[in-house]
Amino acid sequence: MNNQINYLQLVLTFATVVSTTLLTWFLNSVSKRNEIKLVNYHKDQIDKTKELYSKLSDINILINYFFLDDRNPLSLGEFKGRITQLTKSFQYSYSFFLRNRILFPDELKIKLENYFQEFRKRRKVLFAQKETIEHVEQQYEYDDLGNLYEEEMYVNSIIEAFVKKEEIIELRNSSKQILTDLETYFKKLVN
Q: pTM of the entire structure?
């Protein structure tokens, strides 16, 4: 009987060790899977933040083109092309944000949504400017080179008036601010 008790104690001890080992292995496995998921999520946040920053930087650069080109006058076609490029960049950036918004914290999402909403409102000014350019293009007859001094002077006056519009100045400022907000968020992510 004593042997049977010792045998039972040995079996129970063995079963306890095995079950403890299996339980520890299982918990470690689950923990590692969750850790991997968190690492992947964090990596996605970093990657998507960098990509959105890049897209919004393109918008900021395009907006600043209107303010910087006083030494190299634009033709009507170039000016219209930049407006088109700006609106397309906005669409790509906004679509990207909508597809990846789940990765951004609520505070930043609100700032980004406000930025995109403001841009949509300001876009009307861009479209109106593009229509004005198309109307002017129809009025000019081009020489063999497609350049006219009158056109250059007129385009310069259009650009000067365009960059002085409150909506464009606000758009430029909000583009700078949203980039600053993204930079701050990115620094928090990588630290």
A: 0.72
